Structures
1.
Amino acid sequence: MKTTLLKSEDYTRSPWKNGGGIFTDIAGAWRTDSPVRDWNSLLWRFASTPIVTPGPFSHMPGIDRLQMVVGGRGLVLKSPTQEFDEREPFTTVRFTGEMEIVTALEAGPVEVVNLMARRGAADIELAAVREPGERSLPAGTHLLYAARGDCSIRLGGEDFAISHESTLKVELTEVSSLALVSGLAVLASIRLVG
């Protein structure tokens, strides 16, 4: 098990693909054979961003997306064929980057986290850890993000404190156990395929 504390002051910023806003980049991975880190070389990316006005999402062919509101409430994503209801915070929605999506804000601006992955390159999951009790973490990369105040977790019998908006990056080569000690954490899990 390898753990790295990613501090909020060290996160980088980058524009949305459509230029409509700014991501706070928390962690990511790109193809090692690519000379640049861009959308074409992306393997996976975990980022937060405010959505302050209704508008279209970026077109991201070949990218699978998971999203969760971590601040505010009332977000709905609308496509021509369905709606994705994120009105309640810490609800995960899954959609593809090809979908035409426009946001509706029913109660003002929101803050969201996005976990994105190149389709076929990684399997991804995104969940809120709010209740005490152990859960199993499979081999792979896991990001525990303190979205609402400080939190504490126990991982493989070791205790970790994560300050507000910081992230504990955990790289596992075998199954381990995770337990929430206090607070709330957003858990992003990535398993590279192949």
Note: The chain has a mean pLDDT of 94.
2.
Amino acid sequence: MINYLALGDSLSVGVGAPAPQYGFVPRYISMTRKELKKYISCENMGVSGATSENVLDMVTKSDPVQVLIRQSDLITISVGGNDMKNAALQFLRSKNKSVLSTALKRFNCNFDNIIDTIHCLKRYNRKNYILRGINLYNPFPNTPGTEAWVRRFNQHIQSFEGKNIGIANVYPIFVGREKELLSSDKFHPNGKGYYLMAQSLYELGYYPLY
């Protein structure tokens, strides 16, 4: 059996999918089960609207979540989209670029601490585990300047790739295909978008877990 923990925001919840089973988490479970031929026990702790600060609070202050982290063989994290969205909306109102730079610095610090906390909680666990992140797509392709900031967020996320950490690079998948892959709210993926996200996670493989 594989213990899978999904952490993050509305992407982990599957907001925008036509039904819950069409989010990336259920689809990734299905792909993983077929690949590893093992039962997947999943705890989905995704929270709609969660920022990196909210996810950090969850992993550092929630005893039940810390127990799940210690027990998990496979962890996925979707975070950063709301940090970026909130900053972009504030920038559009104020035209103050420091809003974006401040949001990026805060996200970088929070993301560092999320990963460090997970590693610390797993420190004495002799079992192999893998951590999978998802970088950001740009839901505001027609807003000047947003592409550059999404790339900066992603640069930091990608920097964590290592022995047991893989980052699904979904950014290029969505470029130029926003109408095809985003739901009617024009922010969250639709069923096809979530499928491609799950496929990107699957293509990272499962080493050193299996």
Note: Residues 2-202 form a domain with the Rossmann fold fold (CATH 3.40.50.1110).
